[in-house]
Design a protein that fits this description.
By secondary structure, the chain is mainly beta. Among the domains are: 30-106, membrane protein fhac (Ubiquitin-like (UB roll)); 327-439, no CATH class. It contains four helices and 21 strands. Strands 4-5-6-7-8-9-10-11-12-13-14-17-18-19-20-21 form a 16-stranded antiparallel sheet, with helices on one face. Strands 1-3-2 form a three-stranded mixed sheet, covered by helices on one side. A two-stranded antiparallel ribbon has the order 15-16. A hairpin with a 3-residue loop joins strand 9 and strand 10. The protein starts with a helix and ends with a strand.
Length: 439
């Protein structure tokens, strides 16, 4: 998230200057005679990315009949790798059948970037630093990243992920280390510092194209000043927290950056225990449905819950007003052991995504400065959510709700910039600017 804000500031002026001279480029036709047999599949434009990364996303296979709908799914699945600004597909007839060619425009993949962000949605709570991320390490869609930041909150983290290990067995792997000093989000005490040091490792398996199952282990040490030792499970100001978890994901979304059709279902269960200080359980489920209605108009809906069991320390509480927000109460903070969320959003196109080159900047960026997307969509939304503790009954009065409408700007690398106006149930309004699709 931090690097996306910087990229927005860097590329937005270039987008505006290029837009006046750009023209929409129509996607090539993917319709064909479904009696034709595919005799070859090729890729063009992937100078960095290895062909194997693309082949494994294809349901279309050599020797099978051409299926235009399947080909369109393949095109979107390659786009979902987040390695390309544009993916086009062209079936070409031959004497023996049809050859499929995928034309891709690679995104720039390595970013040294400054970090400047405000914590908790408050411009007075700044942190600054620097980071380096390689989003296509060795051309295999692996990610290597490291960053640090100082200010209101301080931290350093190192992260590695590989979405495909051990060949056709389809396993994936993630590993991360972090050290942070951050102000407590807890609303029951005055702000105090929490020191976190830990690691997390995840190993999972992909089944087919849409189903993922993974297990994870983690270890974290948390320290606070003795004045606030009572918030820790140990009551001595220092907790050591091993964790073991499993997660499941089913994902048939058409485009991850701005989905308009498909399902996304994710669930997790994580046990935290060291048998002397800490013993609690966290679980959650997130169900999203994207229903096409008519000519690019889509209804997106979501229901999600995060629940806790056992004697969970307050620093593990769930929140509204941080990573999860209710539009209409965007900056309002609430906390509790459990959280429930609901969202509905009607999405519709205003300016169809078109592709542009960055003019003079393209000379320095080469092919990475071409085929950059820009478009505008609109959204009408309703959000609701609540947090509560296990000893409190969840009632209608605990819910925060809001509604409104906005513009969604499709831009390269950042994907989506949202400018929205929202109302709470008392008709109080607020202007919101944020990045990424809401859900």
């Amino acid at each position: 998230m931090k690097e996306r804000f910087f990229l927005l500031l860097f590329i937005f002026p270039a987008i505006l200057s290029a837009l006046s001279s750009s023209s929409g480029v129509a996607s090539p036709q993917t319709t064909a005679d479904d009696s034709l047999v595919i005799t070859g599949i090729f890729f063009a434009g992937n100078e960095k990315t290895k062909d194997e990364v693309l082949y494994r996303e294809l349901k279309s296979k050599v020797g099978r009949p051409l299926d235009p709908e399947l080909l369109l799914e393949d095109q979107k699945r390659i786009q979902n790798l987040r390695l390309f600004t544009r993916v086009e597909v062209q079936p070409m007839r031959t004497d023996n059948g049809v050859v499929i060619v995928f034309y891709v425009a690679e995104r720039w993949y390595i970013f040294p970037y400054p970090i400047l962000f405000y914590n908790e949605g408050d411009v007075k709570k700044l942190s600054a630093g620097a980071g380096l991320v390689h989003q296509n390490f060795r051309g295999l869609n692996s990610t290597v990243a490291a960053s640090f930041w100082l200010g209101y909150n301080d931290g350093i983290d190192v992260y590695y992920s590989n979405p495909w290990i051990w060949g056709e067995k389809q396993f994936f792997f993630k590993l991360g280390f972090f050290a942070e000093r951050k102000r407590s989000k807890n609303l029951k005490y005055e702000r105090f510092d929490e020191e976190h040091l830990g690691m997390a490792l995840s190993l999972g398996k992909r089944f087919g194209y849409h189903t993922f199952l993974s297990s994870s282990i983690g270890y974290r040490v948390l320290n606070v000043d003795q004045e606030y030792a009572e918030i820790t499970a140990s009551k001595n100001g220092s907790d050591r927290i091993p964790s073991l978890g499993v997660s499941f994901t089913y994902d048939t979304r058409d485009l991850h950056e701005y989905p308009k059709s498909g399902w996304y279902i994710s669930s997790y269960v994580t046990k935290y225990a060291n048998f002397s200080q800490v013993d609690f359980l966290k679980s959650g489920i997130d169900v999203r449905r994207y229903t096409p209605i008519w000519k690019g108009v889509s209804l997106a809906s979501r229901a999600a819950a995060d629940l806790a069991g056992g004697n969970m320390p307050i620093y593990e509480n769930n929140y509204l007003g941080y990573s999860e927000r209710i539009r209409g109460h965007f900056d309002l903070k609430r906390e509790g052991q459990n959280r429930l969320l609901g969202n509905v959003e009607l999405r519709f196109p205003i300016l169809k995504v078109r592709y542009m080159n960055l003019g003079g900047a393209q000379k320095a960026l080469g092919s990475y400065g071409s085929n950059l997307p820009f478009g505008i969509s609109g959204g009408i939304f309703f959000d609701t959510g609540a947090v509560w503790d296990k000893d409190i009954t969840l009632t209608e009065g605990r819910f925060l709700s809001g509604y409104g409408a906005g513009l969604h700007f499709h831009v390269p690398y950042v994907d989506v910039v949202r400018l929205e106006y929202a109302f709470d149930t008392q008709q109080n309004g607020e202007l919101i600017m944020d990045v990424l699709v809401r859900f």
